[in-house]
Every structure is written in structure tokens, then in C-alpha cells.
Amino acid sequence: MTRSPRDERREYSSGGLNERDLPADPLVLFAEWYDAAVRAGVREPNAMALATADAEGAPSARIVLLKGFGADGLTFFTNYRSRKGRELEQNPRAALVFWWSELERQVRVEGAVARVSAAESDEYFASRPWYSQIGASVSPQSDPIESREILERAVVARVESLAGGAVPRPAEWGGYCLVPTAFEFWQGRENRLHDRIRYRRDGGWIIGRLAP
User: pTM value?
Assistant: First the structure.
């Protein structure tokens, strides 16, 4: 049976954006919107779509979790040998999308990506739950595996070998920081006349409105 999502629509009317009222720094607005998403009870407000592309420009996207943001950029962690890791080695640029449906808001971020320091990766890895560390240490992320049982056996073996001790951070696992060159803040409006405000870096930040 063919479904028709074209009829699944809703009106957006919870707010608006006026470029005259916005801060000069997009990270200030991003922090305000992120905090609003937390207060609104958005489940995993740090969930974001991460889009990368290989050397030939073929794109791929997936949901990852934002683990830090500030003047240096936006940080996430993964396996460097995963598909996204391999693509970022070939083409070190990416795009992020946050969607906070409860607030009828979307944020897009684009920029160059580089690995964070080993010390930062060590610090974050050590902060993760112990079994999450185990999982990261045994998973050949993005590689084909014959069955889930193989992965589960690898977890059991690693747990037994460590006997509750510290899990060393795998050399192939760590963080990336996206340094923004553009932000777009999208606020849903009635009749699909959405507000779209773009910050574009050109020395400083240039603010402009985009048609919906």
C-alpha cells in the first residue's frame, strides 16, 4: 500500500524572528534556543543530523549527539574509522541540523571540521558510562559484521579481561569540532511563511533574511 504523507501537515504559530532584535553573535542565539529546548522538555535536545560527503561528493547523513559548543565550535565524538570519520578525512567539511519540533524551530550549521585534541577525547571518553566505553572499544563501527552475537561475545570478553578496571580509549575513537562558517535559524510561521535568518561569516558575522 502506498502512503501519502503530503496530507500530514500542521500550522506553525508559536513565534517569529526579527533580524533587528537578534544578537550579533550566532552562538549567543544558539545557546538561547538550546536552553529553551531543554526547558521545553525536548527529548535529547542535543540530537542533530550530521551530513558529510566523500571525496567524490556523495553525501551521507545520520543522527549524532552534540557534546559541547562554544567559541571554538560544536563538538561531537565518534569512531574515526566509521563512515563519517572516513568521509571527514577525505572532505573535512560538514553540516548539522537541529530540529526542535516542540518549539517549531530548526537550526542549520555549516563549517570546517577537525579532530579535537587527544586530551579532550580522553576526558570525554572517561566521563562516559563504563559499559558505553566497553561498547565503543569493541565495535568496528560501520564495518559489516555477521551477527549481533559476535558483538555481544566481544563485549563479554572485554568485560572479563578488564575485571571492572579502566577502559583505555581506543586510538580510533575521539572527537571532532565543527567551526561554523554559517548558521541558519528557522522559526515556523503560519501559511508556510517561515522566518529564516542566516548568519554568514565574512570576517565578522553578516546577518540576512532568506525567503521561506
Answer: 0.91
